[in-house]
Amino acid sequence: MSGALGRRRRRQARTAYLFLAPGLLLFAAFRLYPLLEGLRLSFTNARLGRATEQFVGFANYTRLTEDSRFQVSLTNTAFYALASTLPVLVIPLLLALALNRGALRNTLRSVFFFPFTLSVVTVGLAWLWLLDPVVGPFNYYLRRLGAPAHSWLAEPQTAMWAIIVTTVWWVTGYYLVIYLAGLQDIPRDLYEAAALDGAGGWRSFWAITLPLLRPVLLFVMVTHVIGSFQLFGQVFVLTGGGPGDATRTVVQHLYETAFQNFFQFGAASAMAWVLFAVVLGFSVLQFRLLRGHTEY
Amino acid sequence: MATLTGRRPDTQRLILTVSLVALALLWLVPVVWVLVTSLKLSENIVRLPPEWIPWPATGSHYYEVLFSSSRTARIGRAFLNSLVVSIGTVILVVTTSALAAYPLARMRFPGRDLVFVVLVGSLMIPNAVVLVPQYVLTQRLGWLSTYQGLIVPEAAMTFAFGVFLLRQFFVTMPRELEDAALIDGANAWQVFWRIVLPLSQPVLAALAIFAFRSAWNDFLWPLIAVNRPEMFPLPVALALLRSAYAAESYGPIMAGAILSAIPLLVVFIVANRRIVEGVRLSGLKG
Fold it and tell me: Chain A contacts of B29, Cβ < 8 Å?
């Protein structure tokens, strides 16, 4: 009896692996292997076309501590991640709360979501034109209102903020949909009970909505921070990393090190792993901060 | 709320809706501006004050980026490249994810939990981290500037998410039909093909749209993996189109931008509910 059962188990395992094989092959070859190979490369002096690569220990990593452009890139990227988190967390949430009360919910949701279907290049080109210092409409209307016009993308104080505004416009709809879904999963009767107990809108927001949205807030934060540290496309189109190095990001620095500047694969891989470590660190931190019990 | 402000709830709701509509219109301004620009005569584009009605209108910028001068003839070709790559990616992602998600949801075998944990964990890997080795691998395979060199890595990027999404769906499906078919002597493949897949159409569509969007819009990987201009997908061609023109030639650039937005706009209008459902599933179960 147990022999027959064992045979059936083995047959099922074989079937399972057959189903999994194509996907796991794809995953192993193009995700897992590159991840580990990158770690190995980061300890070598590999370059494109160099026949033999040598083990160089932590040299690539120690060089990063002296690479001032890398440090500027890391600082810029971290600034972007921190400065954009609050608007990305709050603006879609406010919109979701408002949409949940007003009419035309689904139509408006679609309008706000639409920019998210555009590619980063399309978004960048649109904002490049809007913010054009001379003939762009944004500066024109500012001047009409009596405010000073700026070359938003060419001034070091404003360039990163212009990129943040562009990104918020781009991704708000995505997070809005997620928040709306989260709001709908909160049982109605909780609000009714709270209203019976005399709680106003504000009270029930703090006591019911916010605590029950905690997993959603955590998801939005983690997703956004992981995305933030990969900031590249907006910068590539809008500023090219300038003015000076004011908007230079880690991925841009990595891209240039690996593919434009003598193809230094070893050095770029070290940057990639530093980036990975930072992203993981932030994610763990956020899980720690926001994890908690959300029991109804 | 009504008692706090002293207004009747109906009035309050009306004010809220009107301000939301105004904000939504404001939200569309950048897109409208791009569209308006793409339809204007070149000499009218940089005029101040900004003109919001493109009159007289022209399709010449579209004609130019799609068919004429050599430096922009690439947008038409890039559009086709993007279609091939995106559709190829969708097919590869949906097939491999569905096949992999099914045993993870329904079968018992050693290593199942490990496989699932590794896949979900991999969702935390930033794409930029695997960029260099992925390039080396693609180059060794001789896949640079080819469709497979874009499709396969693109599919690998979305695969883990696909498995996650589909497994979640398969787990919540009632088992009765599958069990009945198994008792009637059907094998696992028949159950998967004839019962599970037809019942999963909504979630498969959501995954297909997700994969299409990420392949259609991806920029960094094709920027690196393609160096022959006739193989550029749209985002790369557009980004380079910009540097090919003088700063003031916004007409053709904006026409290219509008063209790049059309396929997803169509998908978005046709399958609005699927998209929302897909985003919802991706967010809440994460």
Answer: 130
A49: region left, alpha or beta (phi > 0 left; psi from -120 to 50 alpha): left
Q: In angstroms, rounded to a whole number, what is the distance separating the alpha carbons of residues B267 and B255? A: 20
ipTM: 0.89
Q: Are A40 and A272 in contact (CB under 8 A)?
A: no
A3-12 LR contacts (CB < 8 Å, sep 24+): A9/B108, A9/B109, A12/B107, A12/B108, A12/B109, A12/B188
CB count in 10 Å sphere of residue B261 = 24
> Tokens 């901060």 map to which residue?
A289
Judge residue A14's burial from the number of C-beta atoms within 10 Å of its C-beta, 0-12 exposed, 13-18 middle, 19 or more buried.
Answer: exposed
Cβ(A271)–Cβ(A70) below 8 Å: yes
Token output for B155: 């599919």
A230 close to B128: Cβ distance less than 8 angstroms: yes
CA distances from B27 to A53, A87, B30, B108, B160 (A): 52, 15, 7, 50, 33
Question: Using an 8 Å Cβ cutoff, are A39 and A269 in contact?
Answer: yes
Tell whether B243 is within 8 A of chain A (Cβ).
no
- On the 0-12 / 13-18 / 19+ scale of CB atoms within 10 A, B55 is exposed
Whether B6 has its CB under 8 Å from any CB of chain A: the answer is no
What's the predicted TM-score (pTM) here?
Answer: 0.89
The pLDDT tens digits of the residues spanning B29-47 come to 999 999 998 898 888 888 8
First to last CA, chain B: 33
For CATH 1.10.3720.10, the residue range(s) in chain B are 71-284
Q: Is B97 on the interface with A (CB under 8 A)?
A: yes
- Verify whether the Cβ–Cβ distance A129 to B276 is below 8 Å: no
Structurally, at CATH architecture level, domain B71-284 sits in Orthogonal Bundle (1.10)
Q: State pLDDT tens for residues B188-215.
A: 899 999 889 999 988 999 899 989 999 9
